Amino acid sequence: MSQFQALLLKDYRTTRKGLLVPAYILAGIYLVSILAYVIARVHFGPNSGAVQMSLADIPTPFLTNMDFHAMVSFSMQVLMFMSFFGIVVGISLIVVSSSLLNSDVHNKCELFHRSQPVTVWEITGSRFLIGIGGSLAVALALGFINMIVMNVVSLIWTPLHVNWWMSFNGLILSFLHIGVALMLLGTICFTLSAIFRTNAFGKGILGLGGIEIAIQIVNYLFRFRIPSPSASFFKFIMSGFGKLNMEITTQKYGAFASAAAKPSDIANFRLPPDFLSAMWSTLFTWNTVEKLLICAALYVIATYIYQQREVQQ
Amino acid sequence: MTAIMEIKNLNKYFGKFQALKDVNLSIPQGRIIGLLGKNGAGKSTLMRCMLGFLKYQGEILYHETPIEHNDTRMFKKIAFIPDVSALDERLTVQQTIDYVRGINPSWNDQKADSLMEKSDLPMKKKVKTLSKGMKTKLYLLLVLSLDVEFLLLDEPTIGLDIVFRKEFFNTILGEFFDETKTIIISTHQVDEVEHILQDIIFLDQGEVILFEDIEELKMKYKEVKVPREYMSVLMQHNPLQVWEGLGFVHALVHEEIDVPEAEYATPQLVDLFLAKIGGRS
Q1: Which positions 1-60 of A are in contact with B (Cβ < 8 Å)?
Q2: What is the ipTM of this complex?
Q3: In whole angstroms, what is the distance from residue B136 CA to residue B144 CA?
């Protein structure tokens, strides 16, 4: 085993609990769903409308338009990742990455780890890969499991014709979009953990809040129009997958997204042949490159700050 | 004697507080050196500077190579046991051993296996569940499994019972030390390690008061024991340290001094320490 592998393995072992929080939440949701299903079965019986959708209730266009079903398969994964995984993994990532460079201090073992023959770059590299890369890997694995569960449930209990290829594309594409944004968020927290030994995220938010208030005061006093840094930052983070979401919900592709869609609209809905390539093109943009470059720069800055810190225990 | 480490004009400040004051030391290779000082004398700070954990002013050279802050290259040849239980309590004993083995090119499997055979460490248990003695035993096992040439021990047996403390230092002597290895031990239990030390450093308020071969140091002084009524005679010789016993008065005096009716003995390190440092602050 190489030195770096040993570091990775140790960091995985010490960070594992935090990384698996989204898995526990997803397992909890599944458990509650299964319990709800069992209770409904016991309470209302096997043929209850509450449990099983009747094919007769579904308008014909829904059942016959395969393009529509493909779009649903794609969109379900995108929406799932944008909502549930984006939020749960995002929160977990903030918690994990905000303490990545301070967990040894909190666990009073900094002297032990820092008296090993590995460079600070190797230490931060391993923490970054396990903390941020690990969180994203967990998100992808859970997304994959969830895709299978959702599709199997759809096949058994709904009249949907699951399109696995479109589901897979939706999953990977939304994962990459969310992944880049979350990586940026995680790298910012990682940098905060290099700056502050305790409550890194809280102190970072406090600092940002202070800057916001200062800008508002300056704008008010001098009638400037300095934009809000947090709003600009949020807009920048959201810009990538916002575009993906927008593409799906526009008139061009958006039959599914419109709640007011009539059965006739759905019957006439056709997926353009360039649908998938158009969706993928939302990822390969300068905006994505910018985010990745900022991540790399922040990693270098965080490592430099960490290197300057004294080992105190 | 070749120096393994040279410390030149070392100063360390924590804010306005000066923890180390112009420390100059030449640590010889192949010696067991004691580092003695009261609480807050700067022993741990000195060790942490030597290991590059802290930023400092001055120069520290390890085999003539300057030690930079956070320079981890030297840990290929230097091992350290701190005064606090610094092991990662989130890992099991086996995981801790695997980690140190994987990360240290100087890990010696043969030595580690032999030490593990003798130990009764519960491999599957988390480190946090171990007693303080067991944690120290594990730390010692890890450090002794490395082929390093320089070992720094910062109060390694603090809070442990006397049997374990004896076992600890005997293991260090038996399993680690030879004439090519260097050990610096910082400890409060001077009397327990006195027999294994060859050189001694007295540190007080961040200053090196003395750095000497213990045998040579002891030859410069002697312990005098006189009946209580001879105390005034004894005091005429300006003893470095005086303490009372049952019916007798003991004192530490320079070797050349002769006191009538006195019994002489080789001084203890702790008395020399008290004589040199006891009255300073």
Answers
A1: 1-3, 5-7, 9-10, 13-14
A2: 0.89
A3: 12
